[in-house]
Amino acid sequence: MNQTRPGPVQYAVLALLATVFLYPIWWAVSSSLKPAAEIISDPLSIGALTLDNYRAMFADVPIGTGFANTALVLVVRGAMTMFFCPLAGYAFAKYDFPGKNLLFGVVLLTLMLPTLVLIIPLLLEMSALGWVNTYQALILPGSIDAFSIFWMRQTIAAIPDELIDAGRVDGAGEFGIFAKVVLPVIRPGLAALAVLTTMNVYNDFVWPVVAVNDTSHQTLQVVLATLAQNVTGNRIGADFATVWGELLAAGSIALLPLLVIFVLLQRHFINGILAGSVKG
Amino acid sequence: MASRNRRDRFRVPPSPYLFIAPFFVVFAAFGIYPLIYALQLSFMRWRGAGEAHWVGLGNYLYLLTSPDFWASLGNSAVMWLLIVPIQVIAGLGGAVLLANAKLRLRGLFRVAFIAPFVTPLVAMAQVWIVAFDQDYGLVNHVLNLVGLPDVGWLTSTAWSKPTLALLFLWKTTGFAIIILLAGLQAVPGGVYEAAALDGASRTRQFWSITVPLVRRSMAFLVVVQTLAVFQMFAEPFVVTEGGPYGSTTTAGLYLYDHITASDLGTGAANSFLLVLLVFGLSLVSVRLLRPKDEAS
């Protein structure tokens, strides 16, 4: 904008916005650390620090299982995305081959496919395969996604052809060029891809909640949703304060890991978030 | 783009086909196959077990004449009205404030604005359940402190949609600010100075320079958020379970309800109607928002 020095009004507005965005997170985390009864009696108080809500939550909620399952899905899916998406992106960016445009058109079409349309038939496919409540059901569908391929193609297309030709002159094989020339050059793009994939898989909810209904395979988000439904489902006679304390403890412990990663790697996060808005 | 002369320099090895094969294998197994299956299923009456009966367009006709189906689209449309216009305005305002080159603490503000975007939706949905509780929640507690009565944020049909819209806005407005900020920063620095020299007022500069230049980012934002709103699922699923009185049964949640009712043929038909709607909406938004001077 115009390059006048921003005045107190601008700073006040920005500070107000920042408060609005941060307060719910702060309130959830600080409430989870105070005595459960006080969450209800005085929602605004900064109570005495206590881990009681966390103790109760770990006793009642299978959150450790949720974290373990999410971690497993994240590692496998992340590895598949980080390997296969740049590889396909490289083929589309730097090779001419018969049918390339048609095949890339298919990739672009899948970009526009709403997740929801596949939920029911995928669920039936999983039943037919006997895969309901399995890790492969959580991992395989959508593991090599069109968006990441599209984005990696954009990133790799910017590498000068000379660099790749030089690798070829040195006698590297086709895959060798990808591994030794392409991957090192696109390291910042790969970092952003890793961060974005982590965020998407960690927060994914729609498919896991449909594909998995037993406790042993639930991802973290499904564990949280189940807990929330216990709260809304039976208001009467429940020991309110305790349940709310557990709910806020579970929510806080779930949002902190990503928040920490975000603060440490914000540049890559922002590159990842912006990746979709480049001229397509 | 690949250049033509590279094709002459060396013949095409089989490698590129091998490189893209994994995607197409996964897509065939978990994309194309279920899609074809869903299309077939949408013409069947099937309850997840037993005989499937061919009903032709029966499922589609049932949905198109069903008040519940239209109510779910209506709920999503109201959500759209509560979210997208506010988000575009707030996003542009935030982006303009952040774009000032002389701003201090920009990094800090940016972190604060995007923090909600990286939080898990389900975790924040839990916070909403607690904070907007009618009897013991934080929000009504604050209202009482300033002498206002309790509001049924999640228990009245009047407030349930705005309360969920607020969660969506809280979570994604930072994303909107970042997208529009990137659009603004693509504006060459000297443009504003030149306009100021020509005597254009601040307001004039905003409407004649800023808005046209962020049009593309705005169009992207509106399309992405329109698709997101019409597929909204986790917010009503976790916070309100579609209630009260179906007031938050969005298009996405209504689709899920067919699975719960094991009415899978109708569910498949509903998926395709929803896809048609979403495609239609993206086409319309792209059309309406395309800059007049561009033919693309």
From TrEMBL, chain A:
Pfam families: BPD_transp_1. The chain crosses the membrane at residues 12-29, 67-90, 102-124, 247-265. Residues 67-265 form the ABC transmembrane type-1 domain. One of its GO terms (cellular component) is plasma membrane. Keywords: Cell membrane, Membrane, Transmembrane, Transmembrane helix, Transport. PANTHER family: ABC TRANSPORTER PERMEASE PROTEIN MG189-RELATED, ABC TRANSPORTER PERMEASE PROTEIN MG189-RELATED-RELATED. Belongs to the binding-protein-dependent transport system permease family. This is Carbohydrate ABC transporter membrane protein 2 (CUT1 family). It comes from Nonomuraea polychroma. The lineage of its organism: Bacteria, Bacillati, Actinomycetota, Actinomycetes, Streptosporangiales.
UniProtKB/TrEMBL annotation, chain B:
InterPro entries: ABC_transporter_permease, MetI-like, MetI-like_sf. The chain crosses the membrane at residues 16-36, 77-99, 111-131, 168-192, 213-234, 271-289. Keywords: Cell membrane, Membrane, Transmembrane, Transmembrane helix, Transport. It is found in: Cell membrane. Residues 73-285 form the ABC transmembrane type-1 domain. Pfam families: BPD_transp_1 (PF00528). GO terms for biological process: transmembrane transport. CDD domains: TM_PBP2 (cd06261). GO terms for cellular component: plasma membrane. It is a multi-pass membrane protein. Belongs to the binding-protein-dependent transport system permease family. This is Carbohydrate ABC transporter membrane protein 1 (CUT1 family). It comes from Nonomuraea polychroma.
